[in-house]
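Tip: read the tokens left to right.
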């Protein structure tokens, strides 16, 4: 892992300004949709924490927050296909309007798993907000209720997303190029 490129050397997929503008739009929509209610935002750690922090600061209604942690990637670039909870919720969600906050909706396995687990706790509603949607990789038929950006099938890092716990600190969403992905984008300058 010592031969990983420095984050600033990776090509930008979504710059910070574009992300900030889209989050403001999502927050306004969520604030309208949950008017007169108090949504309980549940961030999926570790990838969603940056997105959730920026989203919460833009929401104009009361809301509460919690986190859970799951594992599905390990240190690879492809999901293992097995999802497990490694940190559970701190408070009951029974009767609450739950908005699950994810960094990326990919195969759909994670959200399907979390729908089953969280749905068993009888929330009043359960919806999903995802910063990124990689629809081309979907295996299970799930859709997010709120989507920041649809992206192609590239391995993305930055803005909370990682590769082997690195790159979370980047302000932009960048991608790790491969011979297959370089044809999807203009070569970096």
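Filled-in amino acids:
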């Amino acid at each position: 892992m010592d031969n990983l490129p420095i984050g600033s050397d990776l090509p930008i997929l979504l710059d910070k300004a574009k992300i900030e503008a889209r989050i403001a739009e999502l927050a306004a929509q969520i604030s309208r949709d949950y008017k007169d209610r108090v949504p309980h935002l549940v961030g999926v750690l570790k990838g969603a924490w940056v997105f959730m922090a920026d989203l919460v600061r833009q929401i104009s209604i009361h809301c509460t927050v919690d986190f859970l942690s799951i594992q599905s990637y390990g240190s690879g670039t492809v999901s293992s296909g097995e999802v497990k909870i490694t940190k559970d919720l701190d408070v009951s969600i029974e009767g609450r309007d739950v908005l699950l906050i994810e960094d990326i909706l990919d195969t759909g396995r994670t959200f399907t798993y979390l729908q089953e687990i969280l749905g068993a706790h009888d929330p009043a509603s359960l919806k999903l907000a995802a910063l990124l949607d990689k629809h081309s990789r979907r295996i299970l038929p799930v859709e997010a209720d709120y989507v920041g950006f649809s992206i192609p099938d590239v391995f993305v890092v930055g803005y909370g997303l990682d590769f082997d716990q690195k790159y979370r600190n980047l302000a932009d969403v960048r991608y790790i190029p491969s011979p297959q992905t370089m044809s999807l984008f203009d070569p970096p300058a």
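The chain has one domain: 14-182. Confidence is low (pLDDT under 50) at residues 182-189.
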